[in-house]
Amino acid sequence: MTESTYRIQGATGEWEVVIGLEVHAQVTSNAKLFSGASTEFGAEPNTQVSLVDAAMPGMLPVPNKECVRQAVRTGLAINAQINKYSRFDRKNYFYADLPQGYQISQLYHPIVGEGEVQISLDEKDPDAHGKAIGIERIHIEQDAGKLMHDQHPTMSYVDLNRCGVALMEIVSRPDMTSPKEAGAYVKKLRSILRYVGSCDGNMEQGSMRADVNVSVRKPGEELGIRTETKNVNSVRFVQQVIEYEAQRQVDVLESGGEIVQETRLFDPDKGETRSMRSKEDAHDYRYFPDPDLLPLELEDDFIFDCKASLPELPDEKRARYKNVLGLSAYNAAVLTAEHETALWFEKLLDTSNEPEKIASSAANWMTSELFGALNKMGLTITESPVTPEQAAELLGLVADGTISGKIAKQVFEIMLETGDGAAKIVEEKGLKQESDTGAIEKVIAEVMQANADKVEEYRGGKDKLFGFFVGQTMKAMQGKANPQVVNELLKKTLDN
User: Fold this and answer.
1) What count of Cα atoms within 13 Å lies in the side-chain half-sphere of residue 204?
2) Can you tell me the distance from the alpha carbon of 421 to that of 428, in angstroms, rounded to the nearest whole number?
3) What is the DSSP letter of 168?
4) Which of 2, 72, 262, 346 places its Cα 20 to 30 Å from the Cα of 305?
5) Phi/psi at 337 (nearest 5 deg)?
């Protein structure tokens, strides 16, 4: 059974899983949604709270234009409908980290309508197993503050730094049917947000998190009752929630129980979800239009400018890498998955007047040598000790025959340790490849004299011995001989 036909095996037969995700993405902006307070991560508690955020009497919200712009740009990036008219609503509920007693959100008239995100379940050939996941809407809303339960033995503290931070809530349709599809969707959505620059996608810091809606049904039957697991902050945890929750629901139904529509929390230490509260419907929040805010009415020129500001997006870039630069489907997918990786690769290509000529070798080197080294060191591409310009210099020395591919590996290791350029290392260490035919011919003659019996065997028809002579020659020259020249001269000498 493939992952695309994921099923839970129960005592009464197979069960199908239906998944929808509500992703909350913190908008990259200069301030909060309705105030000028900073949104920088890691500040001391309650140091980034304006009078508006604290809901002081008489304080009125003023929409942050940049937050609106980023939401529109995100909608355009997923080919969604941009609603020229949208409106803010109050979502009323009491909680200690919500000073206003309500959250300003958009229920009835969101800023972005229907769109889609294209996912793939095959990294080696993303075009082979693609699937479109529908987006129902994107609306913008305020975040709440944060309760801190571990600061005092008997009291909980309230940190309002996050209160009022702008969020995009990106609501998918229930189009996913396996943990793998959900994981691929979150990864692709995060990649798009990072390319656009509308969210940094940092799930560990809480700037992107998912509410995971899961239900189960017998294949082909009506949708089951769903549960919603809140604030899941990693791709791996999203998949764990789905696996656990789907199995739990099947067990409940097969034992004669009923699924309760409720909100649940995920315990990453135990890998389990637990009940938090019964799930409220929209009418429980007494939504109504916010009287302090006029509706948003977008002009065509504003939407056009948002569209013009978009970069080349992952799918477009991947197609260009394949069709124009001639990269393999796998390399194109790997190099475009993260915006930072694509930028690094393109900086490397920018060093050449003919990027198409070096693209394949550069891509192969990045996906093998560079990524392998960074993984061992626990570093990201942006933390690489070797710059794109230094990498280009190294690859150039291989391309023009100055060093061999084998020597290039040694040089790269030294570059990682010292930060020095490839040409400097080659010069200082005496690693330059020997292409002097006279010097190579002299060594070949010595190798043939020392192995006269094998020369006779080769000339008697044992062609496989050719590799032996290449190895002996390269060994005698400490790996510094140009392999192409060695092969040509050996062939010429042995065949005479």
Assistant:
1) 1
2) 11
3) E
4) 346
5) -60, -40
